[in-house]
Amino acid sequence: MSYWHKMRGATRGGPPRVSNEEVFWSWVGAFLGIAALALVGSLFFAGTDRLLTVASLGASAVLIFGANRSPLAQPRNVLGGHVLSALVGVAAFKLLRGQPWLAEAVAVATAIALMHLTRTLHPPGGATALIAVGGGDAIHDLGFSYVLAPVGLGAAILVLVGLLVNNIPPSRRYPEIWF
Asked: Which of 65, 35, 68, 74 is nearest to 52 (CA)?
């Protein structure tokens, strides 16, 4: 198959529609997960620049509550992917802050490589690394504490809510695997 021919895709049509029950529980889980992040953030970090509602955690909510059986949504991947990516992102910013374009590229590429090597691939982790570099002064001022809060704590809260909500209906189970 030629290089250009592969870009046509392998199948036709869109993805299958999920049941209304699946839509409902995905909505409930995402609502409660993001609400928990916002509530904990407002209770424990009020008056600071440390918000727990980092954009990449919204993407994690999609996986945990909308695709909870995906290998990419499992606790190991969510926690490990975010924490590793945050570490890489902060390090890239500190080492390459004079070249933001290079720091951003190094952060995301290295985060992907480390997630592959540690079997913690979690696509929102790429955004977590990118936010550490391009997130502005409020994020940069956190330094390596960015890894613990908002990233580590936020990911842990989403996994906890995922455990509680995704196991309510008999049709859902979370996690599929822990480690």
From this structure: 35
Give per-residue pLDDT as tens, 32-80. Answer: 999 999 999 999 988 876 788 999 999 999 999 999 999 999 999 999 9
Query: Residue 152 and residue 21: Cα distance in Å, rounded?
Result: 30
Task: Report how far residue 1's alpha carbon sits from residue 8's, in angstroms, rounded to the nearest whole number.
Answer: 11
Residue 52 one-letter amino acid: L
DSSP state of 15: P
Whole-angstrom Cα distance, residue 121 to residue 25? 24
Rg value, the chain, Cα: 18
Q: Are 38 and 159 in contact (CB under 8 A)?
A: no
Domain locations in the chain as residue ranges = 20-166
> Is the Cβ–Cβ distance between 20 and 31 less than 8 Å?
no
Residue 11 region by backbone torsions, left for phi larger than 0, else alpha for psi between -120 and 50, else beta: beta
Q: Which two tokens stand for residue 72?
A: 């990419």
